[in-house]
Design brief:
Dihydrodipicolinate Reductase, domain 2, alpha/beta, single chain, 6-stranded parallel beta sheet, 9-stranded mixed beta sheet, globular, 12 helices
């Protein structure tokens, strides 16, 4: 049996202490890093254990004997922490979004490739059983023809401040509101071919990016999708929003999310009545354990993981293309967004 891997976690704010227990189920978490002393203290208090603490990432790597890092810090920090970890020979699990731009994503990929370390980006939505069930149902209902999803919700209870409101640090509206669903749409339909987006007048001036956006996606499979997002819709909370409607070659699906359960309806064209499946478990535990378990096995024995860096990079690419299109009054953007950065060969780190 392989010995437990030793992890360091970067980013001890809201998500860090939520994510850390999943690391502790399968590995040792020996060090934590955050520039804010209060975040380090709150992290320890919540987990009721002590760790080696650092405010500076470089010092952590100089002093700690670790195998891998988990990055749950703000979006704009992902690139630099990943590259520093890779230069020290450490494998990297990075939360979504991978980075705030496609060039930053490629910097991460190339640095990890050159160092021979694994790089996984955590896109759990596609792994949660209710969402994975829709991917599975394509076998029953045929290829996906069209999807629409409306991620309108009220962001006021979250009181987004600081880097969340700045496109250079967060990535923009879709990185905040629709990163999960865009990645799931790719899991359903394959690679994106073109993106077009438009934004109406701004509602909340705290954000330096549009807070409402309508996005049109066309996939190489010829499927189409509409991906709509807003932080200013008062009737729904985050987990109640975004339930997609899916048209397939031989039927369709309707996904209805609630705060405490999810209803999935699906029907073949030949069926007289729809099938109904209720998920009382929203599936977070399953998804986190699957991606982290695969990450550890990928490091230890090279087993094919459920996610790599590709999902993260292509999701950032779709979001960046949409933001660019909206800034250009709805121009059609063709992917890949940066052809000159595309790698001819698959990196060894994903083999």
């Amino acid at each position: 049996m392989s010995k437990k891997l030793r992890f360091a976690l970067f980013g001890c704010g809201d998500f860090g202490p939520h994510f850390a227990p999943y690391i502790l189920e399968i590995a040792d978490l020996v060090a934590i890093c955050d520039p804010t002393p209060a975040a380090l203290t709150a992290f320890k208090d919540r987990l009721k254990r002590s760790f080696h603490e650092y405010a500076d990432a470089a010092k952590l790597f100089e002093n700690e004997d670790i195998d891998a890092v988990a990055i749950t810090s703000p979006n704009f920090t992902h690139r630099d922490i990943t590259m520093l970890a890779a230069l020290h020979g450490k494998h990297v699990y990075c939360e979504k979004p991978m980075a705030v731009s496609v060039p930053e994503c490629w910097d991460m990929v190339r640095t990890c490739e050159e160092a021979g370390v694994r790089l996984m980006v955590g896109h759990k939505r596609r792994l949660r059983p209710p969402w994975a069930r829709m991917i599975e149902l394509r076998e029953e209902l045929g290829e996906v023809i069209a999807i629409t999803s409306c991620q309108y919700y009220d962001a006021r209870p979250y009181n987004l401040q600081g880097w969340w409101t700045q496109s250079a640090q967060s990535g923009g509206l879709l990185d905040i509101a629709d990163v999960h669903i865009l990645d799931w749409m790719r899991a359903m339909c394959g690679e994106i071919e073109t993106v077009r987006a438009e934004s109406p007048p701004q509602l909340d001036r705290r954000y330096d990016y549009p807070d409402t956006m309508h996005v049109e996606l066309r996939f190489r499979s010829a499927a189409v999708a509409s991906l709509n997002a807003s932080l200013g819709y008062p009737l729904l909370r985050f987990r109640e929003a975004g339930g997609p409607l899916v048209i397939c070659r031989n039927g369709g699906m309707r996904f209805v999310p609630f705060l405490d359960h999810i209803d999935l309806y699906w029907q073949r064209n030949r069926d007289a009545e729809p099938h109904h499946e209720r998920f009382a478990d929203l599936g977070f535990d399953h998804a986190y354990r699957l991606e982290l378990g695969d990450f550890v096995r990928w490091i230890q024995d090279g087993s094919e993981p459920c996610l790599t860096w590709r999902e993260g990079l292509r999701c950032v690419e779709g979001m960046e293309a949409a933001h660019r299109s909206a800034a250009e009054n709805g121009s059609v953007i063709r992917l890949p967004l940066y052809p000159e950065l595309e790698m001819a060969d698959s990196p060894k780190s994903s083999a």
